Amino acid sequence: MDILFLKPIFKERIWGGTELNKVFGYDIPFEHTGECWAISAHPHGESIVTKGPFKGYKLSEVYQTHRELFNKIKNPLFPLLTKILDANDDLSVQVHPNDLYAKKFEKDLGKTECWYILSAEENSYIIYGHQAKSKIELKNMIENNQWNELLIKKPVKTGDFIYVPAGTIHAIGKGVLILETQQSSDTTYRVYDFDRLGTDGKPRELHINPSIEVTTVPHQDYKVEKEVKKINTHTFTRFVSNNFFTVEKWEIDGLLEIPSNHYKLVSVIDGQGEINGQKIAKGDHFIITALEKRIKLEGKLELIVSWT
Ligand code: ZN
After folding, report:
1. Between the chain's N and C termini, which has fewer beta carbons within 10 Å?
2. Where in the chain is the domain with CATH 2.60.120.10?
3. pLDDT tops 80 at residue 189
4. 218 preceded by a cis bond (ω within 30 of 0)
5. What's the half-sphere exposure (Cβ side, CA atoms, 13 Å) at 48?
6. How far is CA 303 from CA 170, 222, 251, 280, in A?
7. How far is CA 178 from CA 68, 89, 142, 280, 284, in A?
């Protein structure tokens, strides 16, 4: 009753690959599988509970009918979405709206997101931010295809954490596997797609005007200040904590027993062990509900844990 195990959903993307199978052993349905929606109540891809009394129910249904499992939070829709993304090729350069804009124009939430870099090939990079000093300059540089001058590239390595507030121009570069925690939204404005063709042989649609409207100008860089806490043999790293989400990495080595009073989204990114007597292993995703008053974790485990 108190832990909801969830079944991932997979999305085909032109930039996707096969890492989700190689790294996590998932039975992926596409040659170019780009996204695993691991914990989702978004209508574009809904997690189903795999065991216990809610087996077969969608996460959104459990959220609507049993809000006591989620600390009776007031959000009309389940607020978070956890994904794993396999960038076998560069993703398009994009930007997401904030809540106000998304509500008005998209009937969706805004999309502030953050990335834990699960692995990155040598010399991998992301695009994070831009050099334009005004909206006019941003518009001109986009219209004149001045991508090298406009876009800021940042090197990334395994274990890095990147916070991407709505309004930040960004792209995940080739060779990067990430776990993304985001607001439950599917609204993306594509700024530039490297002049690639989609699966239908045509360029994918761009959304230049809304991109310019929602982009933060000038770019605001965000430095992640990690807070590390040790309990015996276990390490807890907090990456971010704000109105949108709190995201932590838990490295469990041995036995940990702690009280709990808030629901938590959990992704096992490495290792194996048990939670409250139930076996868990790399690639599992679940929600510890608010009704679970104690958490007993055992084994050697790396977890990404989030809540709002
Ligand atoms: Zn994004």
Report:
1. N
2. 3-214, 227-307
3. yes
4. yes
5. 7
6. 25, 24, 6, 11
7. 31, 13, 27, 20, 15
pLDDT grade for 204, boundaries at 50, 70 and 90: confident
Classify residue 243 by its DSSP letter: S
The amino acid at residue 230 is K
Catalytic pick among 67, 190, 238, 294: 190
pLDDT (average), residues 178-191? 96
Distance 304 CA to ligand 1 centre (A): 19
Is beta strand 176-183 parallel, antiparallel or unpaired with respect to 113-120?
Answer: antiparallel
pTM, entire model: 0.95
215 contacts 130 by C-beta, under 8 angstroms: yes
Q: Let me know: does 271 contact 261? Beta carbons within 8 Å.
A: no
Cα distance from N-terminal residue to C-terminal residue, the chain: 21
What DSSP line would sit under 141-162, residue for residue?
HHHTT-HHHHEEEEE--TT-EE
Distance, CA 95 to ligand 1 centroid (Å)? 6
Local structure of residue 70 (DSSP, 8 states): G
Tell me which fold the domain 227-307 belongs to: Jelly Rolls (2.60.120)
Which CATH number applies to 3-214? 2.60.120.10
The average confidence (pLDDT) of the chain is 96
What would the pLDDT profile of 251-270 be if each residue is shown by its tens digit? Answer: 999 999 999 999 999 999 99
Cα(188) to centroid(ligand 1), Å: 7
Separation between Cα atoms, residue 191 and residue 207, nearest integer Å: 6
C-alpha radius of gyration, the chain, whole number: 19
Whether residue 199 is predicted with pLDDT greater than 80 in this model: the reply is no
Cis peptide before 53 (omega within 30 of 0): no
pLDDT for the residue numbered 1:
57
- How much distance in Å is there from the Cα of 277 to the middle of ligand 1? 36
CB-hemisphere CA count at 13 Å for 212? 15
